[in-house]
Amino acid sequence: MNYFSSDFKLGILGGGQLGKMLLAETQKLDIQTLVLDPSNEAPSRFSCTLFQQGSLMDYDTVYEFGKKASLLTIEIENVNLDALDQLEKEGLPVFPSPKTLRLIQNKGTQKDFYVQHNIPTAPHQRFESLSHLKTSLDKNLLAFPFVWKCARFGYDGNGVKIVRTAADLSNLPEVECIAEEMVPFKNELAVIVVRNVSGEIKTYPVVEMEFHPEANQVEYVICPARISTEIAEKAQKVALQTAEAFQHVGLLAVEMFQTKDDAILVNEVAPRPHNSGHYSIEASYTSQFENHLRSILNLPLGNTDSKVAGIMVNLVGAEGFSGQVIYENIEKIMAIDGVTPHIYGKRETRPFRKMGHVTIVNQNMAEARQIAEEVKNTIRVIS
Amino acid sequence: MNYFSSDFKLGILGGGQLGKMLLAETQKLDIQTLVLDPSNEAPSRFSCTLFQQGSLMDYDTVYEFGKKASLLTIEIENVNLDALDQLEKEGLPVFPSPKTLRLIQNKGTQKDFYVQHNIPTAPHQRFESLSHLKTSLDKNLLAFPFVWKCARFGYDGNGVKIVRTAADLSNLPEVECIAEEMVPFKNELAVIVVRNVSGEIKTYPVVEMEFHPEANQVEYVICPARISTEIAEKAQKVALQTAEAFQHVGLLAVEMFQTKDDAILVNEVAPRPHNSGHYSIEASYTSQFENHLRSILNLPLGNTDSKVAGIMVNLVGAEGFSGQVIYENIEKIMAIDGVTPHIYGKRETRPFRKMGHVTIVNQNMAEARQIAEEVKNTIRVIS
To answer: Its GO biological process terms (chains A, B) (predicted)?
Structure first.
């Protein structure tokens, strides 16, 4: 198959920042792209060959869009899977597969899948609705504390709540959910796995994630994670096992907990380029976006090793500001060696909205970590 | 000035591969861009905010285009300078300045400029036309051998000829030209200098260039050049001197000869991102394209050091092939660690046409050099 400067057309469902960064790679290789996104202001709109505004959840829209593409991929999980099933049935390659997306879209089936495949994960119970969960509590089949997660459409901390008492349940929606055992952990880790159509598979180094205490969004992603080689190997092994179990094609970001007693438990996966791999644009031999592209096109995978240490700081809208965005002090952080801002292209900021990220690379991790803190304390996303 | 996700519009004259790679950086920072290029098939057409087809040499077209921009830059030197003069007079920032472009557009005035500013360069004589040059030969004011260069519009080996006998003059055009003393050299080197509006200035490491024996196009660019520290420092000093003499704003690629007796002579300059800096996308902390952008926007310059050794191989159309391009064996080179192809987006190949490049990065230069040769012997640009 000739992808380069040819009539081949890669369709991408979703036109957010992940799509935009993926398009940097299709442009580099001159691969034609079609992008579907509900917003006419989507960050990807200027980087693709053809942009189409439309719903990702509407069967007809997704199906008709898919008919124009030579191969279909996603940058967001929440898309119409029935349309993808039909397109796949008609012979269109769809990576990752709708079957995998269906498993992952629902946290309940995702967790069941781990249990079935002996992938270590925190014990869980599934509930059709909040009422069913409450009934289980009443019957002492479930005990406080636990982590409540809505089964579908949660992201970035939405749809997750630590439940310690009955009062914590009062504001939760009446939706399908799971209750997960609270596992004390010392680290949140992630490993990005890439697997191509032929089954060639590679992992990126283990990264370590630090979350913002309030917004529950990742604040720093640190590569490599400052953990022992033994734990790193264990985490990579679990990540490989997970991607193999899904027979996944594309990138799979596997988020994990390192427990107090050094067990590795899979928290959840994302079947696409992921926030925890943004550092790879500057730090890795091959970025996660290029490797996603290579894998779905069944090209050989690129080297996932790092050239230098990398830390990623998310740029989220500051509290108290809404409206036309201003990146205050961006020129100050750009004056620091090894600092690269990425601006996603959203005109309007609002509190905790992901507006961009900054990568800090350095030969020396301690120095990178210090600069990352300086960056975080200097730049502000205001209006 | 707020450039990011704002109404600021960067105008770029020229939409070739240099423009396309520059646009990867404007997208990363979400800066709006307008591109003017004579071809509707220009590689940049899908990467900018607004693409306009039109002549770069037509006064009205360039002037009207410039009126829509907040700041103007170029990716090719041959543009209508009278229009840029007028735009600058009306207050539009134009970087590099039309004054510098005018000096550089003509190899005669460019060479005179070096002499005036004590910048080392091979001795030259200027001629209004080939007839005047022949008259000088007749009067013994000029002697064989020498290097004939047409004063304007030459590039990539076009417009340059080694003249050893009168017969070598027979096919040369009747245009303004220079005759340059032939200087025996052991290396062709280049140093990219970046200087911002405020005068902050940095150099990239010295690179070493190897040319294709027939096509006179660069075949390998090797960074860092395998030369002594002493020669490298001398070359960087000359490059800095040159950029300062022009009071240049933007990137200035300074091509130089290292003579047999280790003198450094400036050959010519390019006031823009340059083929000799493509390696920087993968190898440097800050690519030449990002630093060009930073410099013209008067942002702090990024670190020009390398993370790893880098070698660039040009992908030019193979002899004997014209038509819809095929990148034969591209999947084989992509299987090698640290190899990244860049496809410029030209559908039609023809012999020696620049179709793309491949960057090889490695911690070890000897290994990178070996891989570069393997890459060159494996991939073929055919039809």
So the answer is: 'de novo' IMP biosynthetic process
